[in-house]
Amino acid sequence: xxxxxxxxxxxxxxxxxxxxxxxxxxxxxxxxxxxxxxxxxxxxxxxxxxxxxxxxxxxxxxxxxxxxxxxxxxxxxxxxxxxxxxxxxxxxxxxxxxxxxxxxxxxxxxxxxxxxxxxxx
Length: 121
Prior knowledge:
The chain is mostly helical. The chain has a domain at 36-105. Helices cover 36% and strands 0% of the residues. It has five helices and no strands. It has helices spanning 17-28, 59-66, 71-77, 88-91, 93-105. The protein is globular, with a radius of gyration of 15 Å. The termini are far apart. The model is unreliable at 110-114 (pLDDT under 50).
């Protein structure tokens, strides 16, 4: 799929607030859930274990679309694209967010944190 010339969707209708927040974080290249949230401190990919590829300034997003361990997931979310790229965040935002959620939820090496207790004492 060639994304050039495709209709760009700024704020797609029918997305939840959380999905829109994730979309904006992915588009700006600073998505804490994806990894590499600290500036200047890239981390290893928790799926393929490639060294130092999850960082800010879009490097984590670029890696998410190229990660060797998630080729099957890309085919599910982008069946018409032979090589999905971050440009799809503007063209297919709902599929891109669903793919990102699959990427971090099915990561074999991610340690799940317990939810914070935000109740006031």
